Amino acid sequence: MEFKTPTLEDKKELDYYLQQDSTRSCDFNPANIILWNQFYQCQYTILDGLFVAKEEDEDGIYFSYPMGKGDKKKAIEMLMQYCEEQGIPFIMYGITHEMEEQIKDMFGDIFEIEYDRDEADYIYERESLATLRGKKLHGKRNHINRFKENHEWSYERLNDENQLEALAMLMEWKMQNCAPEDLDKHEEICVSKNSLIYYKELGLVGGILRADGKIVGLSLGEPALNPDTFVVHIEKAFPDVQGAYPMINQQFVLHEMEGFQYVNREEDLGEEGLRKAKMSYRPAQMLEKGILRLKQTGLNV
Asked: What is the pTM of this model?
């Protein structure tokens, strides 16, 4: 079984196999797979017409759920055989409740799954983010109103003409918000930078927000594998510009997500400030994802 590191040149192959399946999870978006591979040691293989990713860290090796139109039970059995030959435990990551039910139908009750709140995707109603109706989102509307009152503003789709200016804004944001020791944030900025540089090759849609002529917010994303959902990968705004964050959030939804019912704004990875911000928009659901392992038999050999 051979695995390879995903690159931009593999985008068409990833699209071909992944778009045969459906999930709202952000884990299977080709841009995420390509952009984050250097940080998660991600590789992939094609097993009988099914895409399978492999990630590795200090705790072990993990496989994704097979995605595509092939025989998923056979693919999982092949992965289990591979792990047995390599002398490593069989572990799968990013398993949703829908995938769990499919696995139970295929294999019965031989696996256990531990769900991790830090990894859960935030799923919102597109209409809710666009209109911000209701008492619970009153504060968001107030911030947007202050932004509009204080600035001459405009929204633009990311294009070749404003791309370099958007990159300059991102680097300014990095200087203001990234401490040298915060390696996770520096990794995120590296991914954000590459998202902007290769947005066309990755099939990403981007938007920028201007206040008094200057870019103060930007966002990038792409449709999920489920055609009713759009995934927001990147959102950055200057925190000292009141209302910039809710404004780019709303404008990106209004201009780029017409026709979608849901918006996936990805996970919070346990970061307290990010969790508070994502919860403040009142998600319609949390898409739980977990780690799957074979159940322990309790036998001592």
From this structure: 0.94
